[in-house]
Specification:
Elements lengths: L35 E3 L5 E3 L10 E2 L4 E2 L7 H5 L5 H10 L1
Antiparallel strand pairs: 1-2, 3-4
Length: 92
Amino acid sequence: MHNLVDPDISCASCKADCCKLEVMLITDTGVPREYISEDRWGAETMTRLADGWCAALDRSTMMCRIYEHRPWICREFEMGAQDCQVERLKAD
């Protein structure tokens, strides 16, 4: 199965739907401590605000404040790929 990327999808024109997903921190990429929470099982996750958005998302630009230090899962979530397309469809 090919993971087809939609070339019309760009992070610059996105509503950051992926920034509402729970993100576990499975490797150390340098995420600043103020953006890290611990779940009830002791695993580290990205802190999410009361409305479900990732705390590292700059809501005025809809871009990641810690892009260079974003979690591994965020790095693997390819812009325009199938997972991205699914989240965009859910939000519509």
